[in-house]
């Protein structure tokens, strides 16, 4: 299991195993992963990660179980293509990097809900922000009313 | 859905197309940071799990006070007590704050004083911190808001780079003692079939290189008719260099017209050459000074 975590570069030039040659072991993992808020709604026991392209699902399992103590039942992996963009004026094209997305299903009936990390506390809010928020809520209410009426105006 | 509902508009958007580095990249992967297996099972799974708290009932046989204190100090540890998904997020006190108090990065001098095991532990602390900050950055990009005190990420990466540098220094020193060589795998600059120079890392082969004449002829030398194409390639390279220099000279002339005080200063290409010369001298001086 642990041998899969050995760098691929080293595996290429490795000698065949012999009792005199001790096996290579991983000391430091170079992989960094990030937990992301799922775009499409997922069941409560799944976590969505963005992982580096070099990382496999077996390695992710070891990573999560040993470092973070998360019980893993199942992992599914897909590769997401980066967004493309172009500037018509200067004929410039660019693309963001591709990345791997992993869906991890937790064991033992554990659930997870992504917390709100960036919502401000009410004490720190300024008056302008409070007003903005009220206006935004009003807009949302108006929109909700319109959708409830099927896009027909109120005077009808 | 959350991305659509950005209240503050795009004024706060910070690099939607710039995504944070989620991997250390090929820089580390190419380098080998491995150790041979030792009788102590430091890499065993149990090391990461929480220590079982030793109760006083286990030491009821020894009534002396010293034994009791010794046991209690064993259970004490300053690392974070909670494990799980919470470690991907910051402390709940810091949620929703603009700035978070934090310290400085680990410098090289601080890390050089630590032992290897301490560094190994510190690596994982930093890695978890980095994962936490990356999740926060991703969330901020998603909500089109500014990440609270984003300089933390740079500091963590810097300290991780420093840690690797220190470990590589130690590895290099050990290798110099053992083999008298700086690099782990010896290599040499050789010529390609197409007459290009490249650095070849040596690999183990069943036959010595000197004996294997056919292989030498095939791969490490180039036939005579290739020389013409080498000449052409060099010409192409020189032409391109000349064109670039020409563009730069024109640009500099324009700048001098605009700002006449630049006439007394050195041109950028002269500065570059001087810097190259200085670097070369420095390298030669370093080679002379070191004696091992």
Q: What count of domains describes the coordinates of chain A?
A: 2
| Unreliable residue stretches of chain B | 1-64
> What would CATH call the architecture of the largest domain in chain A?
2-Layer Sandwich
Largest interface: A-B, 53 and 57 residues
Distance between the termini of chain B: 64 Å
Unreliable spans of chain A: 1-9
Encode the helix/strand succession of chain A as letters.
Answer: HEEEHEEEEH
CATH topology of the largest domain in chain A: Alpha-Beta Plaits
Structural class of chain A: alpha+beta
Under CATH, the homologous superfamily of the largest domain in chain A reads: RRM (RNA recognition motif) domain
Strand order of the largest sheet of chain A: 2-3-7-4
Describe the structure.
The complex is a heterodimer of chains A (156) and B (292). Chain A is an alpha+beta fold and 156 residues long. Chain A has two domains: 31-106, Alpha-Beta Plaits; 120-156. Chain A has helices at residues 8-12, 57-68, 127-148, and strands spanning 24-26, 34-36, 46-51, 72-80, 84-87, 92-95, 99-106. In chain A, the strands form two sheets. Chain A has a four-stranded antiparallel beta sheet with strand order 2-3-7-4, with helices on one face. In chain A, strands 5-6 form a two-stranded antiparallel sheet. Chain A is elongated, with a radius of gyration of 24 Å. Residues 1-9 of chain A have low confidence and may be disordered. Chain B is built from eight helices and three strands; from the N terminus they run H-E-H-H-H-H-E-E-H-H-H. Chain B has helices spanning 26-30, 65-75, 108-112, 116-143, 151-179, 213-219, 227-258, 268-289; strands spanning 34-36, 187-191, 197-201. Among the domains of chain B are: 86-179; 185-222, no CATH class; 224-291. The chains are: A alpha+beta (156), B mainly alpha (292). At the A-B interface, helix 1, strand 1, strand 2, strand 3 and helix 2 of A face helix 1, strand 1 and helix 4 of B.
């Amino acid at each position: 299991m642990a041998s899969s975590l050995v760098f691929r570069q080293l595996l290429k030039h490795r000698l065949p195993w012999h009792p005199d040659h001790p096996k290579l072991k991983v000391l430091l993992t170079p992989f960094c992963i990030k937990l992301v808020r799922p775009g499409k709604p997922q069941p409560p026991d799944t976590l969505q990660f963005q992982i580096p392209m070099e990382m496999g699902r077996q390695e992710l399992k070891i990573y999560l179980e040993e470092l973070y103590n998360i019980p893993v039942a199942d992992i599914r992996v897909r590769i997401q293509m980066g967004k493309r963009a172009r500037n018509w004026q200067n004929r410039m094209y660019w693309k963001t990097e591709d990345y791997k997305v992993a869906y991890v299903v937790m064991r033992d009936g554990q659930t997870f809900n992504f917390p709100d990390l960036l919502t401000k506390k009410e004490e720190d809010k300024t008056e302008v922000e409070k007003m903005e928020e009220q206006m935004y809520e009003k807009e949302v209410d108006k929109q909700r009313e319109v959708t409830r009426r099927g896009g027909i105006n109120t005077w009808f | 859905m959350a991305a659509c509902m950005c209240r503050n508009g795009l004024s706060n958007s910070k690099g939607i197309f710039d995504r944070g580095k989620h991997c250390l990249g090929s820089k580390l992967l190419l380098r080998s940071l491995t150790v041979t297996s030792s009788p102590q099972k430091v890499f065993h799974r149990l090391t990461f799990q929480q220590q079982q708290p030793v109760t006083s009932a286990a030491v009821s046989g020894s009534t002396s006070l010293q034994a009791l204190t010794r046991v209690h100090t064993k259970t004490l540890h300053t690392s974070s007590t909670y494990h799980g998904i919470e470690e991907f997020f910051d402390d709940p006190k810091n949620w929703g704050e603009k700035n978070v108090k934090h310290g400085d990065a680990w410098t090289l001098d601080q890390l050089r004083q630590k032992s290897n095991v301490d560094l190994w532990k510190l690596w994982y602390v930093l890695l978890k911190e980095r994962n936490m900050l990356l999740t926060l950055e991703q969330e901020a990009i998603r909500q089109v808001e500014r990440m609270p005190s984003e300089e933390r990420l740079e500091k963590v990466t810097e300290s991780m780079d420093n840690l690797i540098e220190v470990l590589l220094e130690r590895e290099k020193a050990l290798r110099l003692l053992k083999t008298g060589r700086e690099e782990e795998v010896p290599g040499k600059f050789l010529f390609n079939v197409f007459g290009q120079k490249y650095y070849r890392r040596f690999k183990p082969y069943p036959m010595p290189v000197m004996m294997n004449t056919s292989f030498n002829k095939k791969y490490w030398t180039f036939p005579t008719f290739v020389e013409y194409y080498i000449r052409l390639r060099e010409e192409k390279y020189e032409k391109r260099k000349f064109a670039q220099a020409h563009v730069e000279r024109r640009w500099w002339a324009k700048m001098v017209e605009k700002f006449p005080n630049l006439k007394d200063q050195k041109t950028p290409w002269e500065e570059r050459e001087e810097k190259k010369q200085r670097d070369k001298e420095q390298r030669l001086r370093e080679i002379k000074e070191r004696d091992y």
